[in-house]
Amino acid sequence: MIKKITYFLLLFFHLTLNYAYSQGFKKNLIVADSLFKKGDYPKANLIYQDIFYQEKKYSSQMLLHLAIIANKQQDYVAYLYWLNLYFQVQPSLRISEKISNTANTYELAGYELSDRKWFSILYHHYYKFIVLGICVISFLITWFFLFRKQSLFVYRRTGILLLIFLLFSVISLNIIPETKEIVIAQSNTYLMSAPSGASWVIGIAQKGQKLPVNNEHDIWVEVIWNNQKVFVKKTQVYLGSVF
Fold this sequence. Notes:
With about 240 residues, the protein is α+β, with helices and mostly antiparallel strands. The chain folds into three domains: about 1-105, Serine Threonine Protein Phosphatase 5, Tetratricopeptide repeat (Alpha Horseshoe); about 120-175; about 180-240, SH3 type barrels, CATH 2.30.30.40. Helices cover about 60% and strands about 15% of the residues. It contains eight helices and seven strands, in the order ααααααααβββββββ. The strands form two sheets. Strands 6-5-4-1-7 form a five-stranded antiparallel sheet. Strands 2-3 form a two-stranded antiparallel sheet. The longest helix has about 35 residues, at about 1-40.
């Protein structure tokens, strides 16, 4: 009895904290949106970034507003970063074209939209619907397999189809990588051979260049540059992902 009461109390507090946290996010977002509409972009920018980096929350409109603010402040690096995150939340070839045009203007690499990357973004965007569809199809196949009177041959065939489908679903849900990247925030940023300031300098990246993230090591980010692993300090990049 005591265990049940403890469990329900913990569940109640958990739900209460989540609700309060969600309400705080909405309140801060409303304040920031209000400042944005009034044209007070510096204050709105601070609240938006606090929501994104500290509260780990976002909305598609918030990301778009951050991109607009960066553009108005003529910060093309931040503009590309926030617009790229918005593109991941709201995939659109029109937004991709804007990103590509801006990157080409400043001769920046890493913003090309390959077929594989486009598929990955669409996959993560519609992930919930894909999982729901897989669950529904699995349920229908299982129902047909268990509750329909069929011959042994049909049972075997249906069972094999179910196993193949489930195997394909598990593989497809796990092999597609997350879309996580950094944008270099400072000019002439050193790319190191190891997560240490005493390691060798492998190369120098220019402000605005985008690189795929491989891993994180304390204050360092492991990225892929010219098909090799290099390390860059987190303080020198825009780091954050919506997936």
